[in-house]
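Encode chain A's predicted structure.
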Amino acid sequence: MFENLSDKLDRAFKLLKGQGKITEINVAETLKEVRKALLDADVNYKVAKLFTDTVKEKALGQQVLIAVSPGQLLVKIVHDELVKLMGGASVDINLKPNPAIILMSGLQGSGKTTLSAKLANMLKTKRGRSVMLVACDVYRPAAIDQLKVLGNTLGVEVYSEDGNQNPVQIAQNAIRTAKEKGFNTIIVDTAGRLAIDEEMMQEIENIRKAINPSETLFVVDAMTGQDAVNTAKAFHDRLNYDGVALTKLDGDSRGGAALSIKAVVNKPIKFVGTGEKPDAIDVFHPERMASRILGMGDIVTLVEKAQEQFDEKEAAALQKKIAKNKFDFSDFLNQIQQIKKMGNMKDLLGMIPGAGKALKDVEISDDAFKSTEAIIRSMTPAERSDPTLLNQNRRKRIAAGSGTDINDVNKLIKQFEEMRKMMKAFTGSNAQRMMRNMPGMRR
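Encoded structure for chain A:
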């Protein structure tokens, strides 16, 4: 989402390249470009101006160390100010009451119902919560059915009432039922509404007063840009919500909402929706987002995503197989499946420092592993476990069965063998011996 902003900021910092020191003139030129980049990203004008004024003041007040260039120093200051602009630190959702009641509010078409289901899935799978979803959108055709389908897919109970057109009553009845059944978390999905629709705004105020939620979230589509900030303020004036959830952060939006909302309404962004899948929701971390905007990557999130797919017993068994040089194509196929579960490939690679810029114009399909998977699936179980069986005739059969060329099959087998040797070299005593033989590692 922040690709254009990242490019423009990168170009702005290049104005300081080769400069021996920070001066008012060269900082002013750079920050003029930074402000333009922020405005192009649909950041609120007052927010952009205050941001660049603060950066300028801090930059001129600092001495450039011999080991740091003026450009590097300014990047550091901009990074720190971006973190502050987006809230400073992640803010957790309030789950302390029993049951915790989460009220979802937002505009029509903001993706509120889908995000409600994603949040339910996250709290169930990552926090061990027992969650009930409540369908209070009695106006949009098929809204209740949509929530039921999502809930059924995720194994989350959905409360709804046929024929009842009073969302306040439905919410109250749902909470009573949830308490009786022992649910500790209730997520109330409400109808999308416009801030100018007085009757609908009064209705959600009535729901909030009736159920006294522990958390009220405002759900907003990140692709609406500056309009998102305006509606966030209008809703906040009525609901005094606790936090914001940004949807469609993976879309082709300019990112201004993510950078402006905290400054305008002084409420934290708590969650971001990052795709279509049920697990495509993340806790919002200002520091990690600032690093990604400035092309520094996001290794922490990458490691967290890997750990979510990590099975300790499975990993120990795999390590033993690698040590004995028994890692086979079935293991390789399983590792591919684990990587695919982590999310969009280009996003994942963009979390590696420096990779974002390198991959800027490179199209990486989510089907990047498709031919590899097809080749492995065309092997017999015996061939997968013993690659030495793969003679020329077998390779021709595999190529035909997978719809690939024999050169693709040969290339994959060669790469697999090289990878297997490298993996074995980095296990157990081999790794220790290699470390001891490295310069400076001998005792």
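The first helix runs from residue 3 to 14.
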